[in-house]
Amino acid sequence: MSKQRGKRDWRKLIVVISCVLMGAVLLAIGATRSFARTAPLETTTYFLDHPREASLNMTLETGSVRIHRGGGTGVSITGTKYFGAFGATSDVWVKIVQSGNTLQINQGGSEGPIHLGWAGVDLDISVPSTVNINLTMRAGDIALDGLQGRARIRTGSESITITNSLLTDGTELDAGAGTVFVADTILSGKVSMNSNTGMVAFSGDMDPRGMYAFHSDVGTVSVALPGTTSFIVDKMHSGISSIENEFETEHVGKGPYAHIEIFSGTGPVRLRKSEISRLYDILTQS
């Protein structure tokens, strides 16, 4: 009897272990796009009271969003929904409400091992040349190109990438566990860029009357400026890694001066000379 009971116990243990492993596999699949199905998001254009200005207030869950300058005077939104193999398009929803020149965009969805797949949405948004953006995303890549205005952006993970833009006073970029990459871009007013664990990298130019902060708790922080920029380095610090300043001074050019902070808790800190010339004049006149 004891031998038979022992065999039954082992069989039960094997069944339990198999169920746990299968559950872990399903959970892993549910967190990826491996078994996700797709459906297009209907393209919609919103016309504005003042066609050269827009405001986007966005609260998103997972996926990605690309915001870029369009050829028209309105805001055009399209994209792709992702939902599980056993799910439905209704598992992912996007709600858009317009009030004058402001669009409120909310996105959510359900996912899990029952649906067998990841639920999210990739958004593509074209806007007028001037736009103010307030965007919070739980997890996903965010990309902006060719824009002018204030950007307050936060993502829990992944990356924030901004190119060919003019970021104005009040801009705050926070990538959480991701990276911040800003290139060929002008900063003006008070601007901050932050990551908890990733890299923060900026290359472009600055209005000399502004204040600019670049922080990472553990990642590399790199700032590249042309030799024609006038600035003062108020703070340049790394807790345990190297510090490099290619300008070899903390005061560059003639006043007025931009004020800069470059900080990493544990990563390297770099202030480099770039080959960019007249970028400020080019972008501010476009």
What can you see in these coordinates?
With 286 residues, the protein is mainly beta. The chain has helices at residues 2-30, 279-285, and strands at 37-46, 53-69, 75-83, 92-99, 102-109, 120-127, 130-145, 148-149, 151-155, 159-163, 166-167, 171-174, 179-187, 190-195, 200-206, 211-216, 221-226, 231-238, 243-245, 251-252, 258-264, 269-274. The chain has a 22-stranded mixed sheet that branches. Strand 4 and strand 5 form a beta hairpin. The radius of gyration is 24 Å and the shape is flat. It starts with a helix and ends with a helix. The relative contact order is 0.11. Residues 19-32 have low confidence and may be disordered.
Oligomeric organization of the protein chains: single chain
- Number of discrete helical segments: 2
Shape: flat
Q: Assess the beta-strand content as a share of residues.
A: over 45%
Rg of Cα set: 24 Å
Runs with pLDDT <50, length 5+?
19-32
Element string (H = helix, E = strand):
HEEEEEEEEEEEEEEEEEEEEEEH
Biggest beta sheet attributes = 22 strands, mixed
Through-space gap between termini = 88 Å
Give the structural class.
Answer: mainly beta
Q: Could you tell me the mean pLDDT?
A: 85
Protein name: Adhesin domain-containing protein
Organism: Ktedonospora formicarum
